Amino acid sequence: MVPNDRRYSEEHEWVREEEDGTFVLGITEFAQDELGDVVFVELPEVGAEYGEGDEIGTIESVKAVAELYTPIACRVVEVNQKVVDTPELLNEDPHGDGWLARLEVDDPSRLDDLMDAVAYEQFTES
Fold it and tell me: What are the strands of the beta sheet with 7-8, ordered from one edge?
């Protein structure tokens, strides 16, 4: 259940390029499964700029609180308000409707430093 159309970080975030040149950020199925039932999501402000690896939000579940990081330097152009209003979307569809933010990225080539689906599957198995 690791989609091939995106790149993955060791912190279990995914990034997918859209046709309009923006990038969508979310957490993986593995991450949401480890967290358990998500009860609260705090996302970054639209317009905020972040460096690679910066903390940009928080995800709280019945088990734990996890920080959300951006695996690539970016500017936030949109957040998924549905996830803020209905945090369980992260558990139901983390690779679809549970996306977290839409980003503008200055250097898309930095995505090459992230794992593809095969490498991410191997990472989560070890």
Answer: 7-8, 13-17, 23-27, 101-104, 74-79, 49-50
Residue 14, pLDDT above cutoff 90: yes
Q: What angle do CA 94, 103, 65 make, to 5 degrees?
A: 45
Q: How many domains does the chain have?
A: 1
- Is the residue at 100 inside a domain? yes
Expressed as residue numbers, the domain containing 114 is 7-121
pLDDT in tens, 43-81: 999 999 999 999 999 999 999 999 999 999 999 999 999
Residue 17 is assigned to a structural domain of this protein: yes
Q: Is residue 2 part of a domain?
A: no
The pLDDT-based confidence of 1 (bands split at 50, 70, 90) is confident
Please indicate, yes or no, whether the overall pTM of this predicted structure exceeds 0.90: yes
Shortest CA distance to 43 belongs to which of 92, 98, 91? 98
Residue 77: give its domain's CATH number: 2.40.50.100
